[in-house]
């Protein structure tokens, strides 16, 4: 089965996309994936600046939500670009997996400071713009 993987990694410099073939073994477990193609796409400068600003807690909630949508759209464009290059239509994929950058947002409440994390990449934007079904990403 074909799978498309997307990741921005910890370098925050862009998006990596990979196309792999994965099959099940006789025991029902996944066999080692077979690499087919891959590419890296740099964040546009203004988006890269916003991603780094998010890590410094310099974005408003509105700006962070907007960045989340923009990141999802850019992930979708990276996916579509790899699909065009490999001439692989969206319906050929069994799954798309992605992992976005994590931005820690610090907020103050009446008892002091607490932290929570938000994963940048709106899966709805990724699904809509790549014409592929996505599952809700794991959030850590």
How would you describe this structure to a colleague?
The protein is of the alpha+beta class and about 140 residues long. The protein has one domain: ATPase, nucleotide binding domain (Nucleotidyltransferase, domain 5, 2-Layer Sandwich). About 30% of the residues lie in helices and about 35% in strands. It has three helices and six strands, in the order βββααβββα. Strands 3-2-1-4 form a four-stranded mixed β-sheet, with helices on one face. It has a two-stranded antiparallel ribbon with strand order 5-6. The longest helix has 26 residues. The radius of gyration is 17 Å and the shape is elongated. The C terminus is likely disordered.
How many structurally independent domains? Answer: 1
* N- and C-termini, Cα separation: 27 Å
Structural class comes to: alpha+beta
By CATH, the superfamily comes out as ATPase, nucleotide binding domain
CATH architecture: 2-Layer Sandwich
- Percentage of residues in strands: 25-35%
Strand order of the largest sheet: 3-2-1-4
Question: What is the 3D form?
Answer: elongated
- What name does the CATH topology carry? Nucleotidyltransferase, domain 5
Low-confidence stretches: 102-118, 136-140
Helix count?
Answer: 3
Write down how many β-strands occur, each being a DSSP E stretch of 2 or more residues.
Answer: 6
What summary fits the major beta sheet? 4 strands, mixed
List the helices and strands in order: EEEHHEEEH
* Radius of gyration of CA atoms, rounded to a whole number: 17 Å
């Amino acid at each position: 089965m074909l799978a498309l993987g997307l990741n921005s990694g910890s370098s925050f410099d862009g998006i990596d996309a990979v196309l792999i073939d994965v099959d099940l073994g006789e025991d029902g477990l996944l066999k080692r994936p077979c690499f087919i193609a891959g590419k890296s796409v740099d964040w546009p400068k203004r988006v890269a600046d916003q991603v780094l600003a998010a890590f410094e807690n310099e974005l408003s909630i509105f700006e962070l939500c907007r960045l989340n949508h923009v990141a999802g759209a850019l992930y979708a464009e990276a996916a579509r670009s790899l699909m065009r290059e490999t001439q692989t239509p969206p319906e050929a994929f069994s799954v798309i997996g992605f992992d976005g950058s994590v931005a820690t947002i610090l907020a103050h409440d009446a008892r002091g400071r607490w932290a929570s994390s938000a994963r940048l990449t709106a899966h709805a934007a990724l699904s809509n713009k790549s014409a592929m079904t996505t599952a809700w990403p794991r959030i850590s």
